[in-house]
């Protein structure tokens, strides 16, 4: 099946000379949730802005549903819903009016039943007659999502949807995203929260310095790049490693009470069996053993060299 | 043509007028009434008729134009500047609407509001002075064309403005002198020859003169010239707008 969004050799140079995107290519499949990770200024928002039509590209092409975003913008933009990063709202409008306005802008005839459903799904219905300035930040964020869903889009862009949102609301948002996925909406989200990508994404893209560093199935990515850590708690502390263990990549922690062994699950041999045998031969008695999988965050830091 | 979008923008903008009724409608009516009381009744009673028209009636077309220009520029510029200022413009730019549709929605609403107030002022004026309109269709033509042209002018100002100061620069500093010196309150024939010549460089003179001709058949310049001037101004603005759309000037960069 053709990808729902296809970005080819996209370049964006701003008037100031700053090159925000350098030859970005990427395909997004229909129905998936793609998380774009990257530090500030990586080019995430510029990429989204070009796909949605807010910023003109300098070079390259973007197709949405097979239509070009520049020459056939009516077709592409009608398919797209965008939730921007900033909490931009018309403060003096009511929730109902602002969401209905968005539907009209996208060329859809008024459909109060759909607007009602969207507002109910986002727990906004009881606030429908409130002015936006009366709402909390989290509620405003929901209004922006409601606006983006007002015209029944096939592709939804969420630019930092949970920035500045408290933990409960963030979990609620994830549920909303999950529900949307069930209806077949393709979701692209950018985020600073790695746990968010880890929790809800099918694929993860890492972007930095205007380039896509990688884009991969989340599970494959974690498997491929995922390092595991074996922690061995000792019955008695040791001050230094015996000679026989020097060939292993071990570090001593907790004042000599634990040994940490890093290994790669993708490797043919993890070395765990021989390590445990060597420990027994060296007369070191074990109290407990545990393993920990490295998180997406660790992978990210390794790739980008900075926290997102 | 995305008619739903044009309708949405238009009615969204018109709803703003309802919310700000005092500021949008009542305030221009009060200020115009003050002009009539001061210039029409108090000062005007001591001024002789101009070309057979009482002074109060003579200034009416000028006052309507003054309000129409200020309101249309104000509404046209604010309508598009406000979403830029709040950031909600993202939605407009990411919607399947062409720039022509955006202009139709915003400029249509600005012109409608301007004309509504213009009509209210005409009604208010008729309470103070005896008015007759010699050429109602010509009057309507000037009225509608001026409203559209200056709403479009306002729209361009709104796109160009980077802050509220720039937004108010032209409506506050440029338009009032042009209107006041464009013969709103006098016939330019009353000026010394030098200032008469200078006045002819003022485009607003042609608007007021043409508009006044439709009421009283008296004019400082040929009404056909007045009509041509509006059309030329409209054409220049359309050209400017086309350039803005093509380059995405201050919108998509």
TrEMBL record, chain A:
The keyword S-adenosyl-L-methionine does not apply. Residues 5-234 form the ABC transporter domain. CDD domains: ABC_subfamily_A (cd03263). The keyword Transport applies. One of its GO terms (molecular function) is ATP binding. Transmembrane segments: none annotated. Keywords: ATP-binding, Nucleotide-binding, Transport. It comes from the Bacteria. It holds the Pfam family ABC_tran. PROSITE patterns: ABC_TRANSPORTER_1, ABC_TRANSPORTER_2. Belongs to the ABC transporter superfamily. This is ABC-2 type transport system ATP-binding protein.
From TrEMBL, chain B:
Its main location: membrane. PROSITE patterns: ABC_TM2. Residues 19-248 form the ABC transmembrane type-2 domain. The chain crosses the membrane at residues 21-43, 55-82, 103-125, 137-160, 167-186, 224-245. Keywords: Cell membrane, Membrane, Transmembrane, Transmembrane helix, Transport. The keyword Transmembrane applies. The keyword Metal-binding does not apply. NCBIfam families: PRK15066.1. Belongs to the ABC-2 integral membrane protein family. This is Transport permease protein. It comes from Rhizobium herbae. The lineage of its organism: Bacteria, Pseudomonadati, Pseudomonadota, Alphaproteobacteria, Hyphomicrobiales.
